[in-house]
Design goal:
It is a single chain. With 153 residues, the protein is an alpha/beta fold. It has six helices and six strands; from the N terminus they run αβααβααββββα. The protein has a six-stranded mixed sheet, sandwiched between helices. A hairpin with a 4-residue loop joins strand 5 and strand 6. Helix 1 runs parallel beside helix 3. It is globular.
Length: 153
């Protein structure tokens, strides 16, 4: 994969093929990718697909999501019982790559966000397990960003 469009297509496919768990690890949920209407709709469809569907999102920097409208932020707020978003603590040293892992089998991996270079494995349980382990370690150290909560009046 070598373009934003490739990642968009792969992320939509991954979301539609997922059934139980979807884990997103991202620098800042890049607006050109995660704000895309089709991507947001695919992630929404996954989150609403069944009782066992659970999405967890781990982000290093939530500031860009707060500065301007972001479809994924709205989705997280609307489906808070199905989607949980945490911010990585500033003191945690995390790798400089992004990935999405699904159901212990699928892995979308980006090791160069500037050029969107990476890979998509639709059935690679070994790679998915390695990425899930990295996600779980950082997830336990993450915290909910109070600025992303929807104010209920």
């Amino acid at each position: 994969m070598n373009s934003l469009q490739d990642f968009r297509t792969a992320l939509i496919e991954l979301a539609f093929e997922s059934h139980r768990e979807l884990c997103v690890f991202s620098e800042q949920l890049a607006h050109p990718l995660y704000h895309d209407r089709d991507v947001a709709e695919a992630l929404s469809a996954f989150a609403r697909s069944g009782r066992q569907a659970q999405m967890r999102i781990l982000v290093r920097d939530t500031e860009p999501m707060l500065r301007r409208f972001h479809r994924l932020r709205e989705l997280v707020q609307r489906l808070s019982s199905r989607i949980e978003l945490r911010r990585v603590q500033a003191t945690v040293d995390t790798p400089d790559w992004e990935f999405v892992v699904s159901d212990g089998r699928r892995a979308l991996f980006c090791d160069d966000r500037d050029q969107w270079l990476g890979s998509y494995d639709a059935d690679n349980p070994v790679r998915a397990a390695r990425l899930e382990e990295a996600f779980r370690q950082d997830w336990s150290l993450g915290a909910t960003d109070p600025n992303l909560r929807r104010l209920q009046l």
